[in-house]
Amino acid sequence: MEAGIVGLPNVGKSTLFNALTSTQGAQAENYPFCTIEPNEGIVNVPDDRLSRITKFIQPKKVVPAILKLVDIAGIVQGASEGQGLGNKFLSHIRQVDAILQVVRCFEDDDVIHVSGKVDPVADVDTIETELMLADLQTLENALPKAERATKSGDKEAKLRVTAIKQCQEHLEQEEPLRKLQLGEAEAKSISSYGLLTAKPILYVANVDENDIHGKSEPAQAVRAFAEKVGAHVVPVCARLEAELAELEEPDRSEMLGSLGMTEPALASVARQAYRTLGLQSYFTAGEKEVRAWTIPVGASAPQAAGVIHTDFEKGFIRCEAYSLSDLEELESEKEIRNAGRMRTEGKDYLVQDGDICHFLTN
Fold this sequence. Notes:
The protein is an alpha/beta fold. It has helices at residues 13-22, 24-27, 48-53, 86-94, 120-150, 155-172, 184-189, 217-229, 238-246, 251-258, 265-276, 301-308, 310-314, 324-330, 333-338, and strands at 2-6, 40-44, 61-63, 66-71, 98-104, 201-206, 232-236, 279-285, 289-296, 316-322, 343-345, 356-361. 42% of the residues lie in helices and 19% in strands.
């Protein structure tokens, strides 16, 4: 699962990406930032539950959950028609699972805004419009082929035609597809199209150094817009975060303290991006390692076991699980068992965010 960072030119998108990736060595040594391609990187998902577990179970190493980010070049008005290499950049967005849109909420005479003025809601609307136009083009191209396939009695093709027309009607009302509730079968029939506005979105308000909590009028405008469309907003000063990323401890902690912050704002970006992707973590804990494993929300116990090894899903017998609160109260797995708090779960169990699990497989 991966998220693509998008935005208009000169909104601080690449500054944010570089700050996110350059902090990784300081946050955890097990998954330092590694470049996959010039515009891709792996970042850790900060999670204080790992350190809370290790107070009672001391491992040789700690492995956090990770997130793949893709820095996609700036989108300009007319991208859906090929402006600014638009088709290439839109194809990059098509390949990611969620969108992180960086929105400029600061004034700076030295950094020229592409439209000549700072208007974050207009920026959001510009990109949303381009993505909707690109989706309409995709659906328009796909419809004739789907309609031809229905003539042979193909049931899936009939579903696809229905879904395409529903999507077209929705987009023509200037509404993104993430607000359209399709049936499971219809959604599956068009999943290969990679429709852009169907992807979940997170807005990152890039604010001024004097507005790190996003209280300014531009940032509040983004919050109001996001609330209207059912999305989340994280305020970040990308320039400040880039400075923090270059500092060593304890200078970083000292600077954070002077700003009234307990952690870099980028930690909130990583965690919220993780949630936007529909992901959650469960943990395994032992002397060898304490590790956060990434699963989709709603994953069953066998599916969660399969993240560790595919054979574990095939040979799943049962799951033993307990909560972090149990561990903090009783202080060891032995005492959790003695107190009858170690749960035994079967194949139908849906693993919960934060479960600490052992899997029995054949």
